[in-house]
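Please, structure for the following, as tokens.
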Amino acid sequence: MLVAARMNENGTWRGVIIDYTSTNLLNWTYQGVIYDGGAINYFMMETPQEVKIGNTYYLIFSDTNTKHYFYRKSSTVNGPWGYPAGYDRFEGNAMYAAKIASDNSGNNYIFGWTNTLQNNVDTGAWQWGGNLVAHKLTQDANGDLSVSMPPAARSYLENSVYPITINSQWGNVTNTIPGTNSYHIVSNADMDISNVIFNPVALDRYKISAIVNYASSSKDFGFMIGACDGYNNFYSLRFVPSQNRFSFDKVNRSSLTTTTVPANDVPITLSPNTNYNIDIVVENSMVVVYINNKVAMSSRIYKARRTNWGIFTDHSDVTFSYIDVKYHP
């Protein structure tokens, strides 16, 4: 049994994960600290779990301060616990207290929850409560972990096609594949935003898909949520290549800087001339973004429901191909 605790280590209080064993689930023997955070002093590493996938052991926990979910790897059941070769998280700050489970076919899934916000508004305070989120969990060749949309959810949502209607567009926009929602969009300077805005999707549950490829980016690009003016006043689900992350930001574009703290983000290595397959699942105020079957970002976005949405580039040269909306009637 793993327990999240705090411990005084040489005069410094820090979060630790401790281990107990039992042969009858009545009497427990303390086995010591299994992980103390290493170089990072976590206040508390909540809901720890250890699982074995293939030949690798994984230790997972949620950080109470950042609300991020992290994992470590080891070749033995008791550690030592090392970092993955890539990033040590594959989600944002809105999938908390996650646990891993497998089905009868040996497929692994990770389950967590996305918090609500006070008064059900985007400016509300973080609350303990929310919606269950599930991802399919896969093990990469190097032992790192990746997440993707569960196949059953994808099959369910890809039942019918919803017609996309353009509301407006601005800037250097070219339709690259006639008969499809595919656009080459170029912006040559900061805040010289080019965009395509679509009418609201009149559904409570649906999936937006696209292939995104950028030739160059000095700033950012991505998707607009609640696109009021397409220039400044909108939420952004954006790629930030200079920082190798995908980010959800609520602040107006004019207030965004390189040091702006995002509402949510997930690390991902970004490279030009590379296809990024994007799925954005929207269910009322829940928005989950999947990128290349590698990472996911779950967010609570009340403004997402039945509002204009779109694509944009800011000082970037980007192609968005085969944008579609699918749903289950």
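The mean pLDDT is 96. The first strand starts at residue 2 and ends at 9.
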